[in-house]
Amino acid sequence: MQENLKKIQNQALQEIDQCKDLKSLQDIEVKYLGRKSELTELMHKLKDLSPEEKKVIGPLSNEVKTYIIKKIETTRGALEAQEIEKQLNSELFDITAPGTKYDLGHIHPLSQIQYEVEKIFSDMGFAVMDGPEVESEYYNFEGLNIPGDHPARDMQDTFFVKDKMSDRHGRLVLRTHTSPVQVRTMEKYGAPLRVIVPGRVFRYEATDASHDTTFYQVEGLLIDKNISLAHLKGVMAEFLSRLFGKEVKVRFRPGYFPFVEPGIELDFSCLICNEKGCSVCKRTGWVEFMGAGMVHPNVLKSGGIDPKEYQGWAFGFGLTRLVMMRYGIDDIRLLQSGDLRFLQQF
Ligand code: FA5
User: Fold this and answer.
1) Tell me: the pLDDT tens digits for 144-172?
2) What are the pocket residues of ligand 1 if the criterion is a CB atom closer than 6 Å to any ligand atom?
3) 49: helix, coil or strand?
4) What homologous superfamily does CATH list for 109-343?
């Protein structure tokens, strides 16, 4: 048996030494150490030996096995290193060649202006809020003093979602303006309140160069004691002057929205022609900018605020149109087209 073990060891070492690749080494490993190998079978037979024989053959067979394992491991290491080297030598790798340049994206022009607007209003003490784009009929209309049969509902063509939420909240709609967040923030935070709400809104309408079905608005809401439209005029003149980097004047005209009383339209002085009259301001010297007004007492009540104690104003302007004005974009549809040739200009 001793001789047999020595024979196995020598034979294995010889084969391992001659081995040229990892695959053959694996075959050798199975042949000499596998379950059906001569060595394993021999070790199984140890139990039939006399105690004296066991004392000699037991340790010897372990020694042979360990020796073969070690030899296989060192040979495997050497063969692996050889294969890596072979692979590296076969590839032409120029470490001085410049790396691949990846295209870097940048912030969408709409978001760029949105962040600027948020910064200016935050500096003036307004919090920036958010609201759901899929809204209930209640928050989009009833809570804003626009009941189901009110003709003012026709002012904003609406995308309806089939599901009904509840009797109080009605159907689900894609919000047609950011104004629903007025009632939501009043309910949540109460008065006093000073917030802006930038966000995406949706209207079921035919698109043209200045109308899209999906666009962005910014809502503003200020509720406190002794608030008047004079404060709105001051805040908007300051906001627009900071945004455009030069002094901008604002003016009010009467306007109608069911959720404000009185309602106004706010225009600002044309920055292109300095109020002389040009094609952008339709020769009036003023650019139509947004709807606004004193928050209607019914809306304050919807938000849980007592109109005898508090009052305030709200406004809503089209962020998308502001971006168009800022960059001289003449077709609103380009902004959401995803066309990189257009976007890369900003
Ligand atoms: C409103 O949506 C009111 N919620 C604004 C408001 C808020 C009034 C608070 C009073 C108090 P209006 O429907 O006019 O109002 O839309 C506001 C702005 O959204 C418009 O001035 C315009 O800039 C923009 N806008 C409206 N429809 C579109 C459209 N289809 N595509 C792009 N911009 C639009």
Assistant:
1) 999 888 877 776 788 888 777 777 788 89
2) 156, 177, 179, 203, 205, 211-212, 215, 217, 257, 259-260, 290-293, 314-318, 320-321, 332
3) coil
4) Bira Bifunctional Protein; Domain 2 (3.30.930.10)
